[in-house]
Amino acid sequence: MVTVVDTTDPRSLKALAILETAHGWLKCRTKDGGKRFGIPSQSEANKYHLVDCQSCTCQDFTRRGLACKHILACRLYCARAKAQQPRPRHETAPLAHQSRVGRMFHGDGQDQDQ
Ligand SMILES: [Zn+2]
Hints:
Layout: H1 10-19, E1 26-29, E2 35-40, E3 48-51, H2 59-64, H3 69-84
Antiparallel strand pairs: 1-2, 2-3
Helix pairs in contact: 1-3
This protein binds zinc ion (ZN).
Residues 49, 56, 58, 60-61, 68, 70-71 line the site of zinc ion.
């Protein structure tokens, strides 16, 4: 999923501002076991919107049906969380030992005592 953050789009900027408050989001579960974030409403105190990466309970989303600032913030949050997960390291194949052919010194001109 590609989430575009457009610095000329007020909704994107609001989403970034909301992302800054991610530490205060509630972690909720719906009856069907889905995960939602409870993101505090900026217009109404003590009100939370239930948000995931696809839907939101705010008026902006329910009226327009398009990703609102909360959904954008949620997507950014999820993308960031994913990026911060430690990745399993791939075993690096042992480097093939380069066998150096030892220089062979041929004793030319060996002294012969006899
Ligand atoms: Zn919303």
